[in-house]
From TrEMBL:
Keywords: DNA-binding. It comes from Allgaiera indica. The keyword DNA-binding applies. PROSITE patterns: HTH_RRF2_2. The keyword Coiled coil does not apply. This is Rrf2 family transcriptional regulator. One of its GO terms (molecular function) is DNA-binding transcription factor activity.
Length: 141
């Protein structure tokens, strides 16, 4: 299974946010930390804000931070929010046209594997994957 690039960036944004704790950060700081295009980070931050994983405050002292404690935000929840398609093969997609779907023995193992993948991610919170600010070259304030 492969996560899309925006999910990858979303997880990295959340790691960055958790590493700073209550301290606000900006999109430009995330761009500098990861070398990801600003437009991508903006798209991801917008999705994370809409999903209530981050909060955004406008203005002079504005910025982004976690919407709640890092220990309360599940990695699986972020992945589910960011991923648009967990249908691994045609028979798991809407509009399935596979000729053998009615007798196929692959559907159940793939569905089980997908469930196991998400269950593993559900065992971790953003707090579990956070780094220390120093690992980003930052000082805690």
């Amino acid at each position: 299974m492969r996560l899309n690039d925006t999910t990858d960036v979303a997880l990295r944004v959340m790691i960055y946010a958790a590493s700073l704790g209550a301290q606000r950060f900006t999109i430009d700081q995330v761009v500098a930390a990861y070398g990801v295009p600003r437009s991508t980070v903006m798209k991801v931050v917008n999705a994370l804000t809409q999903g209530q994983f981050l909060t955004a405050q406008r203005g002079r002292s504005g910025g982004l931070n976690l919407a709640r404690g890092a220990e309360e935000i599940g990695v699986g929840a972020i992945v589910r929010h960011m991923e648009t398609d967990f249908a691994l093969v045609e028979c798991l997609r809407a509009g399935n046209g596979c000729a053998i779907t009615g007798s196929c023995r692959l559907i159940a193992p793939l569905a089980e594997a997908r469930a196991a993948f998400l269950a593993a991610l559900d065992r971790y919170s953003v707090a579990d994957i956070a780094l220390a600010p120093a690992e980003f070259g930052l000082t805690a304030s």
